[in-house]
Amino acid sequence: MHADSLVKTKAGALIADDDGVFTLSFLLLPEYAMVSLLSAIEPLRIANRLAGKVLFRWQCFSENGEAVLASNGMALQQSLNITMGISPRNLFVNASFNPEKYISETCIKWLRALHKQGCMIGALDTGCYLLAKAKLLEGYDMTLHWEAKPAFQERYPHLNVSSELFEIDRKRITCAGGTAATDMVLYLIEDYYQADLAILVCEQLIKSGTRSRSDNQRMGWSKRLNIHHPKILRALELMGANIENPLTASDLANALSISIRQLERLFLQHLKCSPSVYYLQIRIEHARYLLSDSGLSIAEIALASGFSSTAHFSRRYREFYGTTASQYRALIH
Question: What pTM did the predictor assign?
């Protein structure tokens, strides 16, 4: 591919260096997901090789300049220290497990200073927790990993959180993490250079195609459960969308234009349980995510999961998992 034919004059969220190269910087928080970082960097490396010139650079930062241990127990080379006075033009905060545990005033002050300088500030996976704490997501569309979304929304109910693979809103780029980081970078390559280059990078990665930002983060109910009956699938969608205020069997049946008996027969035939039992399972799993990823109290989690009392929630939780909610939280923290 001829390098001179690559450049497009399209403005966007990223900010180029003085020589026209885009440098993507990553602030690594402890327990970050290495898969997100490498999924973002590798397409950049491949794009440079295919273009025959440097289109992108990348660098990593940490709060103290030391190597940061990822969630897989591994660490890359030493990172740049955020106190060295370096001001990246495009920064992604990369976090994963326990993101609130690693929020510091030093990082918050640094991000706010970069914001004042006009830097593009983004996040991979749960890195948005640090951005939210620094009040840098107010009025922006954003996304994060589906597993962390319920807890994040309970913590920051006023923010505009989507279920997209990635969101690009002015000087904010957020990504669900994992391999969605590759899809985000492929989109940026196409946006700033050419679709042909993005396709070539995709082929080098042995990917059959790129996902659009609106693709689902999770497998749909049909693939997860190997069920294809439209009434069942619609019922599951309604259940998943109404956790804090659960629908009644009558509500579900009316929404599907069937009787309650028909609804129960469908669930018994395809899921081997009643609609109420499966709905309860969805709500209990939602509560489990909140227990691991949020600082909400047990009582708050019970309410957010559609239970009228903590005692009722605790009893049901123990029936499903064989341990109490408080015991599970103590174990993982």
Answer: 0.83
Which residues of the chain does CATH 1.10.10.60 include?
221-332
Neighbours of 284 (CB within 10 A): 19
CATH of the domain spanning 221-332, picked from 3.40.50.2300, 1.10.10.60, 3.30.43.10, 3.40.50.300:
1.10.10.60
The 8-class DSSP code of residue 17 comes to -
172-175/166-169 β-pairing: antiparallel
Tell the burial category of 226 from Cβ atoms under 10 Å away from its Cβ (0-12, 13-18, 19+). exposed
**Helices within the chain (DSSP H only):** 34-51, 105-116, 128-133, 149-155, 180-192, 195-204, 221-225, 230-241, 249-256, 260-271, 275-293, 298-304, 310-321, 325-332
- Tokens for 72, please give them: 């897989």
CA distances for 150 relative to 66, 85, 89, 210, angstroms:
32, 36, 31, 27
Which tokens in the block code for residue 214? 């609106």
The pLDDT tens digits of the residues spanning 247-301 come to 999 999 999 999 999 999 999 999 999 999 999 999 999 999 899 888 889 999 9
CATH number of 3-204: 3.40.50.880
Domain with CATH 3.40.50.880 in the chain: 3-204
